[in-house]
Amino acid sequence: MKHWGIFTDNKTNKKELVRKLEGNAYPNVLNLSGKNGRLFSQLALKMFMEEEEKHGTKYLSNEGQALKTMSSGEQKKALLFYILDQQPDYIILDNPFDNLDISFQKVLKQLLLTQADKTLLIQLASRKSDMLPIIHNFAEARDSELYPVNKEAFNTVEKFSQLQGKIPPPIEPIEFEQDQLILFKNVTISYGEKHILNDIHWEVTQGEFWQLIGNNGTGKTTILSMITGDNPKAYGQEIYLFGNKKGSRESVWDIKQKIGYFSPAMTDKFRGRHSVENMLISGLLDSIGLYVKPTESQKRIIKDWLILIHLWIKRDVQFNELSLGDQRLVMTVRAMVKHPPLLILDEPTSGMDDTSAKMLVNLVNKIAEETHTAIVFVSHRKEPGLNPRKILELKPSKKGSIGNIHVS
Ligand SMILES: Nc1ncnc2c1ncn2[C@@H]1O[C@H](COP(=O)(O)OP(=O)(O)OP(=O)(O)O)[C@@H](O)[C@H]1O
User: Which of 184, 262, 306, 387 is deepest in the core (most CB within 10 A)?
Assistant: First the structure.
């Protein structure tokens, strides 16, 4: 079987590419005439979720659990098993390993390699290292066309990922005297009979660089949501944020003031038309749009940030028109511009190509080295080059995940 790998980067219009592939628009490179295919991607998941919401039909149901309450890894597993059950002629795999923990990445790889005897695989990959070993035909998507290339054509990472200069200072640092930012004491969480977290002890102090890791469904997002204020399960637990017991004195607003937060889902909030420069200035002002004229010093700081991440040249471009990788960089900077005591980055590199991911990793390392902000970086991947000093690893057990701490 002649499987194909298509290299995409964060500039590729993937929706269009998938639509054209399904419509057999590239018969000279990849002829799919008369074949029936399935799509393994975030987009397909979104459609199933909408279907579930509108009609209550649970095609991917996992013991009756609604798709939207599953963790991102659980959703992908459910979709994969559904697709394999349909026995399609071909499967389009859009960055299949994103959001999956290492052990399931291995399972998925093995399943796909077994499937490769009977099903044509078309893998869209923005990371060269992700490409399945049975793929020997490669193409690159450019300007809505598909061009055959060799594997080596995909190597520009180091050249473009270096940062220019130092992390710009805050305009007014957020004053915070106390050393301890987060304290979890004996935190135990369940949903009905389902045990999620078991007796978690975790302390984060000023300036520390943490990575939070754990297999799919072990409770990483649950922990983050208890810090950022969105999870009612936090109340009644011994959780202290910035010196106060959660749910006591400080309001959610007070807590959010001290936290810079970015998760890829947030980019959807910025649907309006904002230039890149205004996006960052509004981050200094805690608003989504820009309603106040920025001062000269605010503009200067934002200029330095944009130079640092190579985007000064795109300052007037609409945020929505940036590539996915550039959007993630801008959002990460936006979360950091005020130098909050705590910066939380939730799977910031998922879906990013190698070059953008490397640039983001360089940026996070630099923030850790040059500022007093503590970082909590959540990611399944061992991001090459990321230098966290401490790791909280969630390990599943019958009574819910326990937390192991590793210090380097
Ligand atoms: N409302 C809910 N009802 C039932 N179970 C839930 C609910 N919300 C979360 N869960 C379960 O809690 C567990 C932990 O989910 P969480 O999203 O925190 O995991 P995660 O470690 O972030 O996973 P992933 O890496 O896959 O994103 C999952 O098994 C999930 O199905």
Answer: 184
